[in-house]
Specification:
Layout (H helix, E strand, L loop, with lengths): L2 H8 L4 E2 L1 H15 L3 H18 L8 E5 L3 H15 L4 E5 L8 H13 L3 E2 L4 H4 L4 E5 L11 H12 L3 E5 L21 E5 L2 E2 L5 H7 L1 E5 L13
Parallel strand pairs: 1-8, 2-3, 2-5, 3-4, 5-6, 6-7, 7-9
Bound molecules: ligand LP7C6HRI and potassium ion.
Length: 228
């Protein structure tokens, strides 16, 4: 694909809203036909690659904190990739499994078949032993204040000395305006899917996201596709 078309597709320097992210996702799956699991795998590979490459992360003992939506699904797939590389990794599943999204249930089935450790609770002593935390609690689907055990998990992540990688967007940041909904993860790095999010164009969003990597996972703005 000639580079000027590809550059237009990537819309480098653009920021998109949660609604656009979902619309582009939906278009790619339902109009173009790329299976959702393929997109999730490419999202997970982008986070996995950055975790391996970035000097910010000590992968001696990794904890993936996963919600029940597709952001959690991305995180669970990251845990699987790390596990198959021989990296010690545990999944702390916050959401209720039976309420998990279809894609997240698939990722849970896969990691169970591989025998990855999945916990519903992590005590303080064990939590403090992790050297790297992956925030896969909420992504662009965050729509209200974070409360209860989700808020507790966010506060424990922020109190940890371990480096934090946020999947797509720090959990607690609203994708459109960078507002903190109750509490938000403070990330060292964020790998965001397809295009940067409007939240990261705000001072607060930039600060909470840390170093942002925009991952091209094959989801594009339909208006930027080459005319056939
Ligand atoms: N668009 C892309 O390029 C891709 C995005 N992926 C990942 O999918 C998430 C978005 O997933 P979604 O299922 O829509 O929502 P979340 O996982 O962000 O949220 C989960 C779920 O939680 C509920 N919820 C919202 N606010 C709260 C709250 N305060 N407390 C409790 N529960 C809450 C709500 O029902 C949400 O549905 C995106 O960020 C990417 O990580 C794809 O996997 C790959 C392509
Ligand atoms: K997140």
């Amino acid at each position: 694909m000639p580079s000027q078309i590809y550059n237009k597709l990537l819309m480098t320097g653009q920021y998109i809203s949660a609604e656009q992210a979902s619309a582009f996702d939906d278009f790619t799956i339902n109009q173009i036909g790329v299976p959702s699991a393929v997109l999730m795998e490419k999202a997970a590979l982008a986070v996995y690659d950055r975790l391996l490459k970035s000097p910010a992360f000590n992968l001696k003992k990794v904890l993936v904190i996963a919600g029940s939506g597709n952001n959690g699904g991305d995180g669970i797939a990251v845990a699987r990739l790390l596990y198959l590389r021989g990296i010690p990794v545990t999944i702390w599943l916050l959401g209720q499994q039976d309420k998990a999204s279809v894609q997240t249930q698939l990722q849970l089935k896969i990691v169970k078949n591989y025998g990855l450790p999945i916990e519903n609770q992590i005590d303080e002593e064990n939590f403090s032993k992790y050297t790297c935390l992956v925030d896969a609690i909420f992504g662009v689907g965050l729509s209200r204040e974070i409360e209860g055990n989700y808020a507790q998990a966010v506060n424990r992540i922020n109190a940890s000395t371990a480096a934090v990688m946020a999947v797509d967007i720090p959990s607690g940041l609203h994708a459109d305006d960078g507002k903190v909904l109750g509490t938000s993860v403070q990330a060292d790095e964020t790998v965001t899917m397809s295009y940067n999010k409007m939240a990261m164009a705000t001072e607060q969003g930039r600060q909470l996201a840390g170093l942002v990597t925009v991952a091209d996972i094959g989801i594009y703005d339909p208006n930027c596709l080459p005319a056939n």
